[in-house]
Amino acid sequence: MPPPPPTAMLHHRRFPLLPPLLAAAIALAFFFLCFIFYRKITRKRTVPTDLKPPFPPQRFSFSLLRRSTDSFSAANRLGQGGFGSVFKGILPSGQEIAVKLMSEASIQGEREFHNELSLASSIDTVCCPYVVCVLGFSTSDGKRDYKLRFYGRRKKRRGRRLALVYEYMPNGSLQDALLDRKCAELMHWNKRFAIIKSIAKGLDYLHYSCDPPIIHGDIKPSNILLDCNFEAKIADFGLGQVLNREDEMIDTFVEEEEEKIEKKGDDYGSIIEENESFVTEDAVVVNVEQSPDDAYCVRINDGEEGVGVLETSPSERLEKDCSASEGILDRISVDSGNRKGITGRDWWWKQENVSGLSDSGRVKDYVMEWIGSEINKERPKKEWIKSTSSIEEGSAKVEQNKQKKKLEWWASFDREAIRKEIKKKKPREWWKEEFCDELAKKKKKRGPKLDNEGELWWQKDEDGVPEKKKRRNSIDRWLDGFSGEFRIGRRNSQDWASGDIPKSGGISSTPSMRGTVCYIAPEYSGGAHVSDKCDVYSFGVLLLVMVSGRRPLQVMASPMSEFERANLISWARQLALNGKLLDLVDSNMQSLDREQAVLCITIALLCLQRSPNKRPTMKEIVGMLSGKSEPPHLPFEFSPSPPSNFPFKSRKKVR
Ligand SMILES: Nc1ncnc2c1ncn2[C@@H]1O[C@H](COP(=O)(O)OP(=O)(O)OP(=O)(O)O)[C@@H](O)[C@H]1O
């Protein structure tokens, strides 16, 4: 009898595939481990080692940001903006950072993300220490972000997460430090003047030294951040745009034409004046601020159907309809009936902390009354404020005709023809010689911003391999889709209008109007091209806020005495007319330099002129502030003693 085969031999015969299967499993495990090891290595590369500018913003891994901010904990939350929250984080190297986590649902947030990154590559924060440095960004791919549910099915946890990483600014925003915390450091004139100069230099850099030049588009105290020494830097380029000098020239041309028509007494000219001056000069009705408990706010908001709503209280309100595309005001009415419920348009009212006003309901009434009287003062012959019914019945037709006429007039401009005309008449304008030629020279020296394959720096992966050569995910395709918008330097207004999601969660900004109401230049709402003079206007408002240490619209506890000061801009103009500019200065200010304070207010009034052409450039303003150029004179209309033979009429159009 033959001996029984050894058990191993038996197994071998029973499972002939076992050895190759085992070998395959070991090989697979080996490859898997290699893959994990490779991922670890490549991930490590996404943690930038040297975060000292200049450098193009780097890609951070989302998990690193999550770890450095303690999972975006509430304790690390620095603030909340329109497109998401900002958190403090500490990198493994010990470097402090601020991470702006874009809100998941916000389309505008995605735009801001893209915009900020596109523009960040143009800003050299070494040359210009007055701009907050964007250290990097992170895009987490939602597809891979799963969590295991208890019954074993995998569920998508969240979508794509976008984050921007900035240098950390320990003293937060100017809004917070000056207006809310009222930091002692900012009560010294020297500090405030230094901040003013820094902001001016920052804007000058953006307008004239950046390649390409940039319009910030949203200058306001909450976008000025303060470092540990209370040095100011400009932040938040979410609404920034590349400056297009040609468009600016066309605007100048159109403005000149408007003025010609106005001089001729054309009816249409007066329509523009009415519409624009309402926004500009009676800024009280369009001002918006996140109010403190004791402040009173009036807001214009871009509603769902492109309707601008001016609200003064839930019970009384001013309402103004705007054309969604042009922002043309065509109807204004006062509804003085008692409103029981708060409609959708009253959302902002609910958002504001109105509890502080409850004991001073009279304040609202006074403000309302005052707004009415101010508007009546401005328009003594024309009944601007009427009951809703009377406007609808009586003047709807007239308004419609005016509106039609205005639209026709605008449509009559052939932009291409104008462009040609301008080039023919003035073939080499200063801006071409000084600006375009300089740009061309710079470009030659530095080489193009795009690499050989026409890719933007941030479209490349962290290891430098162009993204095109790799598998592209949805974020990349999306980013590509938007990039053209910035190269041509303009945004389509429809892009904004279609956003629908109010910035600041309905608190402070309105992206369809491209700025923050109250700081926004009047021509924004008139459908004009965005120019650097829009930043100049916002800088003017900021100057007044810095000198006075208060918000642009605010009524304090005692309504009657403070009443005429509610609107900072009107009040400043009034003081200028009375020759009492220094009354505007913050009463808490220490070691005031009166000459510098007067200089600042004068510059502010120059910046706040209705016509963008009349406003100084940021370069001129820097010259004035640093004493290199002649101190400016007040705009003639605000001069306290006009020649007696001149029929002076402040802020009013002679009709
Ligand atoms: N780099 C930073 N360092 C320190 N704090 C910051 C930094 N960036 C933002 N913050 C804080 O986060 C807040 C929110 O900033 P964010 O730019 O998102 O919104 P905002 O400018 O206040 O509002 P909006 O989005 O309407 O313009 C700021 O007011 C500031 O206090």
From TrEMBL:
For ATP, which residues are the binding ones? K100
Name it.
Answer: Protein kinase domain-containing protein
The reply on keyword Transferase is: yes
Q: Which organism is it from?
A: Rehmannia glutinosa (Chinese foxglove)
Keywords of the record? ATP-binding, Kinase, Membrane, Nucleotide-binding, Transferase, Transmembrane, Transmembrane helix
Chain spans, region Disordered: 633-655
Which PANTHER family has this protein been placed in?
OS03G0251700 PROTEIN, OS07G0586332 PROTEIN
So where does this one cross the membrane?
Answer: 20-38
SUPFAM superfamilies xref list: Protein kinase-like (PK-like)
Question: Where does the record place the Protein kinase domain?
Answer: 72-636
PROSITE patterns listed in its UniProt record: PROTEIN_KINASE_ATP, PROTEIN_KINASE_DOM, PROTEIN_KINASE_ST
Give the Pfam families listed for this entry: Pkinase (PF00069)
